[in-house]
Amino acid sequence: MGKNKKLCIILLRLLALGTTLSAAIVMATSKESTTVLNLTFDAKYDNSPTFVFFVVANGIASAYTLLVIFLPSNGFIPLIIVALDVIVTLLLTSSISATLAIAYVGKKGNTHAGWLPICDQVPNFCNQVTGGVIAGIAGLVIYMMVLLHSIHSVLNPLLF
Amino acid sequence: MENTDQSGAKPEVVPSRRMPQSKKLANWVILFLRLLALGGTVSATLVMALNKQSKTLIVGTIGTTPITATIEAKFQHTPAFVFFVIANSVGSLHNLLMLAMDLFGYKFDFKGFRLLTITLLDMATIALLSTGAGAAASISEVGKNGNSHARWNKVCDRFGTYCDHGMGALIAAFLGIIFLMVINAISIINLHKKTTSQSTVVSG
Q1: I need a surface site. Which of A45, B37, B38, B64 has the fewest CB within 10 A?
Q2: DSSP type of residue B8
Q3: Is A155's CB within 8 Å of B192's CB?
Q4: Is pTM beyond 0.80 here?
């Protein structure tokens, strides 16, 4: 029973590693430039600090996941892993919500502030950002399952 | 484990209504932190919900009378701020409920799941509050610094009070999140202590 649970958690963490890494890579490689009359729109992910935050948060999450797969699970280490899991999950959550806020303004604009939507000019950039955010949301859902599993394993040491 | 005395009769068990001293102190600490978290979320909600600034500009003159136009900055103009207000109001409701449960809920029987329920609900509330704060922070950053690549102009140089109030609400929300995280950490430590003491009793 213990070995099955260990295999399950390692598979979940590998899945989380895959999704967060792909979210970071998809967002980081989004780039497009168009020239419309006298305005040049050059859209890259590092034009907005929020997208940079998204890439960095998903990068941290994937690096942390890779590290934790190789840690032993005895003594105080599971407690520390639970605490770090909570922190990483919250980091992922807030990065996704911040990116969605900016992406909403980019798609619909904000007439009261005079901010025009940019998705009509750079549709490929917008689609790639959308794909990155969807991968981030999938990574977050998987990370929540990882978190619940690690909390359960800490609170029931006899079963694990 | 032997629980009979020399004559073979079981000793009397007198239920004591006085809690041990360390448990009382832990309860007071959690209560105080919960009050601080409640203050943070409630003030974030109120300050952002009442965030409004209007400016009148003179756009022209007809003869001697100037024509004025008023532009207004309200929190409803941005969906991120609306979400911020909603998330913080749900968070303050949660804090209020947990406070009431701490103070008046000792009569209810949760069958041993009380601490686990509080911990999980606190975690869910922290996640919700952090999404709200994150979205509002990203929109405020664009409003303060503008985004030259997307041709989005700054808002804060024209609406200084609006931006200051928003900054205050964000700080209050982040403080509420930090206090909730501390409460959550204490609850998890208590849970761990409870399960390790139970497992030693079972195996002893």
Answers
A1: B64
A2: S
A3: yes
A4: yes
